[in-house]
Specification:
Number of strands: 13
CATH topology of the largest domain: Spore Coat Polysaccharide Biosynthesis Protein SpsA, Chain A
Order of helices and strands: HHEHEHEHEEHEEEEEEHHEHEH
CATH superfamily of the largest domain: Spore Coat Polysaccharide Biosynthesis Protein SpsA, Chain A
Structural class: alpha/beta
CATH architecture of the largest domain: Alpha-Beta Complex
Strand content: 15-25%
Largest sheet: 7 strands, mixed
Radius of gyration: 37 Å
Number of domains: 2
Number of helices: 10
Length: 349
């Protein structure tokens, strides 16, 4: 074999060995890639499992916190009941009767917000019956759903204000009597469904006020007509009856807005004994009175000033405020409506 032949043979041998090595290495590379992919999939699955496990743990921990909070609340309440601290608050005396709260309402942007605030106050009051009367020809779905979700004992009514007594868009609130039709509809329901042997008190709970739970404890003391101070009304920080501590009688009122009214009180400043309303079936609210005289119109048909019962620590405590929610500015919403769109499409606000 010549030298050149030997070189060619050696070259061919090396080429063959390299081909075999590359072939073996390709299988090793493929194996490593395959192992990596499988490991990655398994790792991804493990991550997904962990995410699921973590979500379940979070739910369990959340439920644990809720359970702990509820248990703590129940134990605290039981302790207060046993020690007698909460006896008045929880109204454990079954003979005190039912509080019937009458709320006129009408469709407007803040309606649901107002009624939600009231319902979440009222839900803390035992022996409570909410009579909600809409200024509409029929009950509306929004109010129906809100009441159904509230877990309160309630009655939903609809009574539309006659057109000639409706306020115009630019009319001030005092120009025409408001809530007359709705309050009278509630009084009619009470007289049709309750009897003189029933015990309770009737309160006119307008949806633009803020109420302390303490106010309802005061109402349970009413025999004929109870009165108390109202905050942020009539141009004053507080409008209230003036009470004689010695006799526990009402001597007068500190009202500066139309102080010559027979009863210069706000609608939120009194409650009427149920029996008094049932015994005086001809006592109604009236359209034929001046603005601001609705309270006097009903009270004059039931009682005299010297029969008023001053409550809230002889009218020295404020448990209700005439807060009035400010109408929201919805200029941008009006622009959307003109374009055929709404920000609340399909959403109840």
């Amino acid at each position: 074999m010549t030298y050149s032949s030997m070189l060619i043979h050696e070259s061919h041998r090396k080429s063959s060995m390299w081909s075999k090595f590359r072939c073996k290495n390709s299988w090793i590379v493929l194996f490593l890639i395959n192992a990596f992919v499988i490991q990655s999939i398994l790792y991804y699955k493990e991550i997904c499992k962990w995410d699921e496990i973590k979500q379940e743990i979070d739910i369990i921990m959340g439920n644990e916190r809720i359970t702990h909070t509820l248990a703590h609340s129940v134990l605290k309440r039981l302790h207060r009941i046993i020690t007698g601290v909460d006896k008045d608050k929880l109204n454990l005396d079954e003979n005190s009767g039912v509080i019937y709260a009458i709320t006129p309402t009408f469709v407007r942007p803040v309606q649901k917000a107002e009624l939600t605030r009231l319902s979440q106050t009222f839900m803390h009051i035992p022996n409570f019956h909410w009579i909600v009367v809409e200024d509409a020809p029929l009950e509306t779905p929004l109010v129906t759903k809100l009441l159904a979700d509230s877990d309160l004992t309630y009655t939903q009514l609809a009574a539309q204000t006659p057109k000639n007594y409706k306020l115009g868009r630019t009319d001030p609130n005092w120009k025409k009597p408001r809530g007359v039709e709705q309050r009278n509809a509630a009084l009619r329901w009470i007289r049709d469904n309750l009897k003189t042997s029933d015990k309770g008190v009737v309160f006119f709970a307008d949806d633009d006020n803020t109420y302390s739970i303490k106010l309802f404890n005061e109402m349970l003391k009413v025999k004929k007509v109870g009165v108390w101070p109202v905050g942020l009304v009539g141009g004053l920080m507080v409008e209230k009856p003036i009470c004689d501590n010695a006799t526990n009688k009402v001597l007068g009122f500190n009202s500066v807005w139309k102080p010559d009214r027979p009863f210069p009180v706000d609608m939120a400043g009194f409650a009427i004994g149920l029996n008094l309303l049932l015994e005086n079936r001809d006592a109604w609210f009236s359209y034929e009175v001046q603005g601001g005289y609705q309270e006097s119109a009903i009270l004059q048909q039931l009682i005299t000033k010297d029969q008023l019962e001053p409550l809230a620590d002889c009218c020295t405590k404020v448990y209700v405020w005439h807060t009035r929610t400010e109408p929201p500015l919805l200029n941008a919403e009006q622009m959307l409506i003109k374009k055929g769109k709404r920000s609340n499409a399909g959403i109840e606000v």
